[in-house]
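Input record (one chain):
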Amino acid sequence: MSTLLAAWDTVEVLGLAGIVTAGIVTVNLIEAYVRLRRLRAETDLKRQMLERGLSVEEVARMFHPPVQPIKLARRLGEYLVRVDAQPEQVEQILAAFAAADAPTKQLLVKVVEGIVAEQAESGNTDPGRVLGAVRGLMGRARVEVRDVPNVLPSESPRGPS
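The corresponding structure, as predicted from the sequence alone:
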């Protein structure tokens, strides 16, 4: 490759660099135009929905559907495995997650995700930081398992059906 460029004079190399730069700029302009058109179309659709009588909350739900708690719980579990959380810590964190409302669950998973990412970069995993963040978000010193409503179906004395 260097022998190929060595055979070119300065004007040819600058011409090639200009063509490549123009191509990159053109692609970026096209992407920006497409994003702008999509945003305008979305804004127009939202305006029409509001004019037809939908509430702001209904429109927001249509464009930003809530994340399913099962998916959030799975992500949270994956993060707890990454930081090698101890069983008691996992129990406390999952109890806090189960006791939280939907927006708090999303916030909790995002915060844990950020802590895990930061710890992965530094190479220092500390599940205590995750537990501290969860406690801080929940506004309690500790969430006990007994504070969480039972969401699993109870088994009959004869065992599972």
